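[job 4471] stage=fold_predict status=RUNNING
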Amino acid sequence: MLSALSEWFWQERLWFPEGLGWADLEDRDGRVYAKARDLWVALPIALIFLIVRQIFERAVATPLASLLGVKDTARLKASYNPTLESYYCNITKNPTQTSIASLCKQTGYSERQLQRWFRRRRNQDRPSLLKKFREASWRFTFYLLAFIAGLAALIDNAMHNEIKDLFPVSFLQTVLPSQYWYYMIELGFYSSLLFSVASDVKRKDFKEQIVHHVATILLISFSWCVNYIRAGTLIMLVHDSSDYFLESAKMFNYAGWRNACNYIFIMFAAIFIVTRLIIFPFRIIYCTWVYPVTIYEPFFGYYFFNGLLMVLQCLHIFWAVLIIRIAVRFLTNNVSEQSQQIR
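[job 4471] inference complete, writing structure tokens
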């Protein structure tokens, strides 16, 4: 059964347009192509990232947080109560008025004492500023280095000359060492984020982040298997170009450097909008969605690849709305403060 499933999964009509197949990606005459088995390298790289992250957060991020003045406020702990603890962990962290009345009878607490207990207990679960800072500094470091590595891979392959060649030529594009390591490191990093999601800071867009990580891993893996190396390189580079600005803004925010945080965030918003709402859909997706059908008949891999790109684009629009709201709020508050100072 597994053999039949594997044979169905790897059939050429799913992955390639008519006239191309796995035989075209066999190494020959000194030309090296991407192989699906190469992706296994990403697993030990993901494990290495998890280990390096722990070392980085303790040896680099923690001293940096102290240097920038990141301070945690003392939090009062809720007294241990097995009845309330069980209710908090198994039912809800925010009891209704009816539940509060019932819990008051079971514990002998007053309504005010019960509300205070739940408030303190929720505060205990909130991540500390230091934890947030260390996570942001780790991501900032990776995204910055990844962006530099992506530029190096792009220059190495002279991809800036003919963007229209990004999709069709990718089928028979040889893999250079710079591309190989850029792909494996990116795949390993996003896999490590998926592995550590349970312990990372949970934000309001937690579900969207999970979808983003899964879609990114699938895109990187699929584009590698069928040798869409040029498309994949550009897509990863576009995403890395703004993320380190966001993480640096978070770092300054946790340190209390409001002005630095706000100005960096405005830079991030501008770059995000240009790369994710203009370059990504109108240049990259255009080359993967419109241009290929002038050369090949549409096939499953074509729809699958572009479907994942559209998932990412929907997430880009969702985040862009949030980013614009925050940027407008900052600019409005800044103008108001300046007006008050003039008066």
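[job 4471] summary: DSSP finds twelve helices and no strands in the chain.
[job 4471] exit 0
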